[in-house]
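Incident log, structure service

09:12 report received: a user says their structure output differs between two submissions of the same chain.
09:20 pulled the input from the user's history:
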Amino acid sequence: MAAPTQDTAVRSSCACAGAMSMAAGEYISVASQRDTEQADIDKERAAQESGPQIRQQELDELAQIYVERGLTERLAREVAVALTEKDAVRAHARVCCLCATDTTC
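09:34 re-ran on a clean worker, output below:
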């Protein structure tokens, strides 16, 4: 078996550097998405803690999102109420996160 040449060492180094660069880029992308989602959750938590009038507006907004996705107004309201009663912050933040990545929302 022949000893590795300098050319082989250079190619290996370039491949390793490329892989490390891709890994760093993916880490930054995932961390950025996580930070964005956390900011959405914090925003929704603040809205839910702002009082009954704001909570009602948030509920109306959530129901409207489901109407725009094809549910009847009655069913959209039922879904929004059920999800909000279970976990208001998650129900609203989850839909907002989806809307941020879905241009049809």
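09:41 both user submissions now match this output. Likely a transient worker issue. Closing.
09:42 reviewer note: The mean pLDDT is 80. Residues 6-101 form one domain.
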